[in-house]
Amino acid sequence: MRILSLDYGDRRIGAAISDELGVAAHGLTTIVRKNREADMEVLSSLVKEWGIDTIVIGYPRRIDGSEGIQCEKVNRFAHRLENRLHVPVIRWDETFSTKEAEDILRNDRPQKSKKNKLAVDRVAAGIILQSYLDASSRDKS
Questions:
Q1: 52, 59, 93, 121: which could form a disulfide with 4 (CB 3.0–4.6 Å)?
Q2: Apex CA 63: angle with CA 34 and CA 116, to 5°?
Q3: Going by C-beta distance under 8 Å and a sequence separation of 6 or more, which residues neighbour residue 78?
Q4: Which pLDDT tens digit goes with each residue over 32-60?
Q5: CA–CA gap between residue 71 and residue 12 (Å, rounded)
Q6: 3-class secondary-structure state, position 105
Q7: What whole-number distance in Å separates Cα of residue 41 and Cα of residue 137?
């Protein structure tokens, strides 16, 4: 069982993957968005290559728990994923995942760079996925 996690953004999509046991998340890649079709092709190839059976996508609720414009964008994208890739897409709270990723990377690489922006999205996807995996393991206990 492998799970793919996505940190969806207007310019980039961070991706992380679980290990086969569904215990640990690992950053995979950052997709620089071109257009809907190209984005779906890249994601489709990742799903096939890694044998993905579930996708977890970061769901950007506001601090007060309400849904904003970005949630609408994620919902539209999630529906396209489900229709195109035929795998379930789970929306998972991503509150502060990007900030946490930036903090982690700031300690590793203090300078700002384009590489750092790409890494932030990949690390944020890993944080989202690890949160989901941890919650799932608690639910099973």
A1: 52
A2: 40
A3: 57, 89, 91
A4: 999 999 999 999 999 999 999 999 999 99
A5: 16
A6: helix
A7: 31
> Partners of 12 in the beta sheet?
32
Q: Which residue has the tokens 């890694």?
A: 50
Tokens 């059976």 — which residue? Answer: 53
Tokens representing 95 are 């509150």
Pairing relation of β-strands 52-59 and 25-32? unpaired
What per-residue confidence (pLDDT) applies to 12?
94
What does the alpha-carbon distance between residue 93 and residue 71 come to, in Å, rounded to a whole number? Answer: 10
CA dihedral 120, 122, 128, 133 (to 10 degrees): -140
Q: Which domains does the chain have, with CATH numbers?
A: 2-140 (3.30.420.140)
